[in-house]
Write a structure and sequence with these properties.
This protein is an alpha/beta fold and 284 residues long. It has two domains: 29-119, 3-Layer(aba) Sandwich (Rossmann fold), CATH 3.40.50.10860; 140-263, Rossmann fold, CATH 3.40.50. It has helices at 7-27, 43-59, 74-86, 105-109, 123-131, 140-151, 171-180, 195-200, 245-248, 262-281, and strands at residues 3-4, 33-39, 62-68, 92-95, 160-164, 184-188, 204-207, 225-228, 232-233, 239-240, 254-255. Helix 1 (7-27) runs parallel beside helix 10 (262-281) and helix 2 (43-59) crosses helix 10. The radius of gyration is 19 Å and the shape is globular. The termini are far apart. The structure holds NADP nicotinamide-adenine-dinucleotide phosphate.
Length: 284
């Protein structure tokens, strides 16, 4: 039976460090602050916003909510980001996406200054994930996958890692992060042929597909490490991952649950990035 890699254990382990850092910032007159920029009122965004607020409160990070109407003009959204860029009391900005269809998302996301890009949404920060030049902060979900591996002493070095999914939010950045840690990385996607034999051959499988329980027992082999990024609702309205946890846990060596896995660590990484961004302002 697989070891269950619990997100709460990972997040708990670095909470203490974040609390210490935010306390120390306050003694220096800095209140680490995350601005959450939401356009419209999508249920998913609001529920994530609440989760982030709970986490932030726990570790001493303040939240500034900026809410704009769904029909906001692009120029007004750009202005809102520019004013957060200029506001020295804000250390990180989380902007929910997708943005409404009338907004040029590629243009708007790149208005954010890289120093406040705590979720790797700008091209400059994403490029840095590829070049390793340390600008800004990698996308939190990708970073959360690496935190889980590190917490459980799973060294990717020399291992065969297969990432199923190639989005800019998770798949591509986590593949680069695994590569930078000396894994031999394969990126699979919807056109990959013989996916089950590709995943079966891996030591580490990162599933970021967005399809409920798509990866069943036939995709896995004994001893593998499985990180399930997927957050989906199945036909019974239950929250499930991309991996069929019940069928797979008796085969592999270790697996993250959904819920209670990567998602739990992601909000922890987000607030950690805010505190680190605030610390960087000390030297300025
Ligand atoms: P996305 O942008 O829709 O990307 C999905 C990827 O999966 C694409 O690259 C797609 O390939 C690939 N794919 C789709 N069907 C496939 C198939 N049958 N076989 C192989 N690959 C297939 O999704 P995302 O934003 O990366 O999110 C993926 C999942 O992670 C979602 O469930 C999302 O809710 C979850 N998520 C979780 C967190 C968290 O904190 N835990 C954060 C973000 C996202 P193509 O490129 O060929 O289309």
């Amino acid at each position: 039976m697989a070891t269950v890699l619990k997100g709460s254990e990972v997040a708990h382990a670095f909470d203490a460090e974040i609390i210490d850092k935010s306390k120390s910032l306050r003694t220096k007159g800095i209140d680490p602050t995350l601005a959450i920029l939401r356009v419209g009122g999508r249920e998913d965004d609001i529920s994530y916003e609440k989760g982030v607020a709970r986490r932030a409160e726990k570790v001493g990070v303040s939240i500034r909510n900026v809410v704009l109407p769904a029909d906001v003009e692009q120029s007004a959204l750009v202005q809102a980001i520019e004013s957060l860029n200029a506001d020295t009391s804000v250390h990180g900005v989380l902007m929910f996406r997708p943005l409404p269809g009338h907004i040029d998302e590629n243009l708007v996301r790149n208005v954010l200054v890289p120093t406040k890009d705590i979720d790797g949404i700008t091209d400059l920060v994403l490029a840095s994930v590829f070049t390793g030049t340390g600008v800004g902060y990698a996308p939190c979900t990708a970073a959360a996958c690496m935190e889980i591996l590190d917490h459980y002493d799973i060294d990717p070095k020399g291992k065969k890692a297969v990432v199923v999914g190639r989005s800019l939010v998770v798949g591509k950045p986590v593949a680069m992060m695994l590569l930078s840690r000396n894994a031999t990385v394969t990126i699979a996607h919807s056109r990959t042929e013989g996916l089950s034999s590709v995943t079966r051959d891996a030591d580490i499988v990162i599933a970021c597909v967005g399809k409920a329980k798509m990866l069943g027992a036939s995709y896995f082999s004994a001893g593998q490490i499985v990180i399930d990024v997927g957050i989906n609702v199945d036909e019974g309205d239950t929250l499930v991952g991309d991996v069929d946890f019940t069928a797979v846990k008796s085969i592999v060596g270790a697996i993250t649950p959904v819920p209670g896995g990567v998602g739990t660590v992601t909000t922890g990484v987000l607030v950690k990035h805010v505190v680190d961004a605030a610390i960087k302002t000390l030297g300025q």
